[in-house]
Amino acid sequence: MLSISLEEFLIWKKKQLSKGGDQQSFALLLDYIGGISASDLNLISINLEGKLHLKKKLEFLESLWDDHLLKSCPMQYLCGITYWRDLKLKVTNKVLIPRPETELIVDIVFKKFPNKSEKLFFAELGTGSGAISIALALAYPFSDGVATDIDQDVLEIATKNFINSSKQSNLKFYCGNWWSPLESFKGKLDLAISNPPYIPKDTYEKLPKEVKNFEPKVALLGGEDGLKHIRKIIQKAPLFLKEKGWLILENHFDQGEKVKHLLLKNQFTSIEIVKDLSGIGRFTIGRYK
What we know:
Elements: E1 2-5, H1 6-17, H2 23-34, H3 38-44, E2 51-54, H4 58-71, H5 75-79, E3 81-84, E4 87-90, H6 104-112, E5 121-125, H7 131-139, E6 144-149, H8 152-165, E7 171-175, E8 189-194, H9 201-205, H10 209-212, H11 228-240, E9 241-250, H12 256-265, E10 268-275, E11 281-288
Parallel strand pairs: 5-6, 5-8, 6-7, 8-9
Antiparallel strand pairs: 1-2, 3-4, 9-11, 10-11
Helix pairs in contact: 2-4
């Protein structure tokens, strides 16, 4: 452990933030690499004579911060972790960084299934880091979940995240494209969730470089109109859901009505477009029959 004065640290911190970047990324760097949490800083900020104990030298932290600013590489990839809801998740550039707005997908499930002791059987298609499935497996300890992804390397990350987050064994991972690994679960699911690639091709080309240059294209690009994968998921969902089973999808900000139409066409009822905290129709949900 390296010890420095709080005054020296605050001068250094001010200098780093003056270069640009956002407070959240800087806080992640300090916390995970430097070993200084926001609560640590709050506790000692009343005493400028206090000392801070760092896991790494300021020069090393500064080099990572400069790398982040120069190349626009997301801090989550530089640190190898991200925080999502109350989870600490390993991430690499093979997985999409789970977004704060996606946290609401878990809250939607809570509203539809308020009894946490319920024995649900749920599936997540395209799990990535495993964030959604892990949050549900922890929240519903008597339930069982299955999560799919097309990339075995990604599933290894998701599996490690589940092991690191829980001592439970109620979540299993399967490699394959969307529904294809789940053939033995036809007609058995109470709930299916997916945050699939939904960015239209034209929009993808204009994404910020910190997204386009670093996050996996396969997890973002949803074909010409962004609905390529959503169509596939909806069309096959009736084969896997129980009657009255729910399908919950995240979609692009302007796709809600189109997704609603696809759900209606495939015999879904109780369809809702759910807004995120910015008032954007971020999720479209429906009940099979």
